[in-house]
Design goal:
By secondary structure, this protein is of the alpha+beta class. The chain has a single domain (11-163), classed as Alpha-Beta Complex (Peptide Deformylase), CATH 3.90.45.10. 23% of the residues lie in helices and 31% in strands. It contains four helices and eight strands. Strands 1-2-3-6-7 form a five-stranded antiparallel beta sheet, with helices on both faces. Strands 4-5-8 form a three-stranded antiparallel beta sheet. Strand 6 and strand 7 (129-135) form a beta hairpin. It is globular, with a radius of gyration of 15 Å. The chain starts with 10 loop residues before the first helix and ends with a strand.
Amino acid sequence: MIYQWLSGVNVTAETKNRKPKIQKILKDMSEALDSQNDGVAIAAPQIDVSLRIFIVSGKIFDKEFMDGTSNTRSIKTHSNLFFINPVITKISKDKKVMNEGCLSVRPIYGKVRRATRATVEAYNEKGKKFKMNGSGLLAHIFQHETDHLEGILFIDKAKDIREILQ
């Protein structure tokens, strides 16, 4: 496990006023995520930034992407979602095992048991606080990315770890 304390973002001073430093980090994270055909989310530590931020790709809301029938480089129909200082406030008791991978440890995959529903409170890129509920893949993403912010990689929890070359 990686143990590293990450700083929270001073949302009032840095995000609401759209400070260039935070906006550049968000842009860099989006570009890094969007450059990966199969990437569905990214956390700030994955680009060597020690802040509590993650982004979920808008691709996960595209039916064709999720079905595997679209060109992953095609135009996105949904915007990326920004989570600044995210906190999981609620998770379901029911769990499900899903295959997971990670941009940080390619091409390693494994099976991880996580809650099937999760609620996250965070700030968006404009400094507005919001709450989002997720189920299925989105709930897994919330938990996976929050783990990154706690210094945990999915391989620390995974079973049946394997390498898949594409």
